[in-house]
């Protein structure tokens, strides 16, 4: 599941419970409802900081749940349902009316990597954790919206190829070199401290959240298209 805390203008969304934070129906539903709550309570100056408890950030879809089905066809249906249900979560992050920061405390793999890649700023601990997409090793096709979001967010063709077609595990420092990760720190605590400092800095700007979200959408038009997001014709005061 996940928890939500608010300190001043900073919202803290934390994945809790299962140490691997596998993306099964309960967790996906909990995250989506929490993002809806955050969006509805946003005000100028709001900022979201996302993180997780434990050794992992998220190891992706709950494949054990899919494999526990009574038949192979039901297992496939369960996996398809999880893939479909994560799409609105990605859309919610991409359209959230505030800056978003993620403090990656450990491995973010497969579906779990969608969380960092959908945030504005990625902070990561140096001493533990990797970013990777193991679908090529698991013989699982890449969902269309995964591929589109990754392609728009990972600008280096070589980095994109290695992560998607070789399943390369990217450390925090390698992620900085690839332009995926913004900064790295020596521990979970220091990563969170840095996320809070950045959040407070961004919060002081008191940006209009609706305008902020529309600018973000304009930067990633293909991702928005495949996630079903449309831009609103906003006109600011002059």
TrEMBL record:
Superkingdom, taxonomy of origin: Eukaryota
Show the Gene3D superfamilies listed in the entry.
2-enoyl-CoA Hydratase, Chain A, domain 1
Q: In which pathway does it act?
A: Lipid metabolism; fatty acid beta-oxidation
Which GO-annotated molecular functions does the record name?
delta(3)-delta(2)-enoyl-CoA isomerase activity
Q: Give the catalysed reaction(s), semicolon-separated.
A: a (3E)-enoyl-CoA = a 4-saturated (2E)-enoyl-CoA; a (3Z)-enoyl-CoA = a 4-saturated (2E)-enoyl-CoA
Record-given protein name: Delta(3)-Delta(2)-enoyl-CoA isomerase
An individual GO BP term: fatty acid beta-oxidation
What is a single Pfam family found in this protein's UniProt entry?
ECH_1
One GO CC annotation: peroxisome
Q: What is its EC number?
A: 5.3.3.8
Keywords, sorted A to Z = Isomerase, Lipid metabolism
| Record bears the keyword Lipid metabolism | yes
Does the UniProt entry include the keyword Lipid metabolism?
yes
Per the record, the similarity remark reads: Belongs to the enoyl-CoA hydratase/isomerase family.
């Amino acid at each position: 599941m996940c928890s939500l805390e608010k300190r001043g203008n900073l919202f803290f969304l934390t994945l809790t419970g299962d140490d691997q934070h596998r993306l099964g129906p309960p967790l996906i539903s909990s995250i989506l409802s929490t993002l809806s709550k955050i969006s509805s309570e946003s005000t100028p100056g709001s900022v979201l900081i996302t993180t997780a408890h434990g050794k992992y950030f998220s190891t992706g879809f709950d494949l054990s749940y899919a494999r526990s089905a009574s038949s192979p066809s039901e297992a496939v249906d369960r996996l398809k349902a999880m893939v479909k249900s994560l799409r609105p979560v990605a859309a919610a992050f991409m359209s959230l009316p505030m800056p978003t920061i993620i403090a990656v405390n450990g491995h973010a793999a497969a579906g779990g990597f969608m969380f960092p890649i959908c945030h504005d700023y990625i902070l990561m601990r140096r001493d533990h954790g990797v970013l990777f997409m193991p679908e090529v090793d698991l013989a699982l096709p890449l969902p269309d919206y995964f591929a589109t979001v990754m392609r728009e967010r990972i600008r280096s063709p070589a980095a994109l190829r290695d992560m998607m077609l070789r399943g390369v595990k990217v450390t925090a420092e390698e992620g900085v070199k690839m332009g995926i990760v913004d900064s790295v720190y020596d521990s979970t605590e220091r990563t969170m401290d840095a996320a809070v400092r950045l959040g407070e800095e961004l919060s002081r700007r008191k940006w209009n959240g609706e305008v902020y979200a529309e600018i973000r959408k304009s930067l990633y038009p293909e991702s928005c298209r495949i996630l079903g997001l449309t831009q609103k014709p906003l006109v600011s005061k002059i």
